[in-house]
């Protein structure tokens, strides 16, 4: 949050499997209103489409847990709020819902900037539902920090290589 405030920039969040956890963490920081504009909890596909403009054809072709959907969520967050940065998270926290292609713990996290920079990555977290959600929120914040501090991609030791 400090870097956002120092740089005079703003942030929005678009969350699915984290259910507002990132927004909660941000608003727990005193003074966060100087940089955090707010967020969307787009748990259902309908809300992804209605609130942030994820295209139905994207959901049909790639599913909710995909790079394409995560990207559209982040871009939609930027467009709908006018923020300088947006975080998006979509995944399968379990205990049900996994498939062989997208097992439980598969999470896509994105950070998009108004200037066109994007960092969209797939992770495979382990643990129970709460642990997967916590890992997702922590990783999203680390990715944002990387973009703000380095103006690029922060290498994370727990990242799943594709």
Strand and helix layout:
Layout lengths: L1 H6 L3 E5 L5 H7 L8 E6 L3 H8 L3 H7 L4 H15 L3 E7 L14 E8 L4 E7 L4 H22 L12
Structure description:
The chain has 162 residues and is an alpha/beta fold. It has a single domain (2-150), classed as CinA-like (Maf protein, Alpha-Beta Complex), CATH 3.90.950. Helix content is 40%, strand content 20%. The chain contains six helices and five strands, in the order αβαβαααβββα. The chain has a five-stranded mixed β-sheet with strand order 2-1-3-4-5, with helices on both faces. α2 links the parallel β1 (11-15) and β2 (36-41). The protein is globular and about 45 Å long. The N and C termini lie far apart (30 Å).
Short note summarizing the structure:
The chain has six helices and five strands, in the order αβαβαααβββα.
Provide key terms for this protein.
five-stranded mixed sheet, 6 helices, alpha/beta, 162 residues, 20% strand, Maf protein
């Amino acid at each position: 949050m400090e870097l956002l405030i120092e740089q005079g920039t703003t942030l929005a969040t678009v969350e699915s499997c984290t259910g507002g956890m990132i927004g909660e963490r941000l608003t727990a920081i005193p003074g966060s209103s100087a940089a955090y504009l707010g967020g969307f909890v787009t748990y259902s596909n309908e809300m992804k489409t209605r609130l942030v403009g994820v295209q139905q054809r994207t959901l049909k072709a790639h599913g909710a847990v995909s790079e394409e959907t995560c990207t559209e969520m982040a871009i939609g967050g930027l467009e709908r709020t006018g923020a300088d940065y947006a975080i998006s998270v979509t995944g399968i926290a379990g205990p049900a819902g996994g498939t062989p292609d997208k097992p439980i713990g598969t999470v896509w996290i994105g950070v998009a900037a108004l200037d066109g920079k994007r960092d969209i990555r797939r992770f495979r977290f382990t643990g129970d539902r709460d642990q997967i959600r916590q890992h997702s929120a922590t990783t999203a914040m680390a990715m944002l920090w990387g973009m703000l501090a380095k103006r690029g991609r922060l290498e994370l030791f727990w990242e799943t290589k594709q």
